[in-house]
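The instructor's notes for this session suggest beginning with a concrete chain rather than abstract definitions. Hand out the sequence below and ask the class to guess, before any prediction is shown, which regions might be ordered.
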Amino acid sequence: MKRLFFTILLSVVAFAMYAQSARDCIRLGNRAYRSKQYDVAETMYLKSVAKSPSFEAYYNLGNTYVMQQKDSTAFENYKMADSIGTNDPMRRARNFHNMGNIWYAQGLASINQEGGNPAGAFQNAVNYYKSSLRCNPNDNETRYNLAMAQYQLKKNQDKNGNNNQNKNDDKKDKDKQNQDKQKQDQKKDQDKKDQDKQNQDKQQQQQQQQQPQPKKDEMTDQVAEQLLNSAQHDEKAVQRKVNKNQNSKRKNLEKDW
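After discussion, reveal the predicted structure:
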């Protein structure tokens, strides 16, 4: 009997939960959200979306995910809320405002992050804050956030520009260093070639100096022999001339008797 009663009770509870309207789920979710029971609020908003998707359900889901530090999921739900739309410009303004906040937070987080793109994130934040102000021009908080996003955008654009300029300058300096090193290497090679040639010329000079050279006042055997032959020839010629003169005198001295 007790088991039957328990089964009936569960069925009634299940029916009661099923019978809850999408609006009922939103109210229960709001109650849990105010109590900071964000997981319970998430469950109730998801039930509301499952029963009847609405701007309010998705918007509230986005807020719940923000409180759970799930910004990416929150942003997707804000986008779903915007795609459904609402006739209330104030709600649309808050939705765009929150989307801008997510991008602004992402920009701050990516400033010192390797490979981050803070300028792109701040640009998105600026765009969503402007959309919010179009819906509600009197929202001072959004106007302040827009000014901060624009400031961060310009700051990080200038920073990126300076970084790019520094990278270009570093590249130019590196190229110049490489060119200077190449010139130094070429000069070293040329100096080595010149030094090798000087060493080679010096070595040849030393070899030539080491070879015996005939003295200027000395004559070679061939020259001496030529001079000797010439002298002997001249001597014979002189002797023949002397003999001829003597014979001539002798003839002149003889008389016919």
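Then share the key points. The chain has a mean pLDDT of 80. Residues 140-210 form the longest helix (71 residues).
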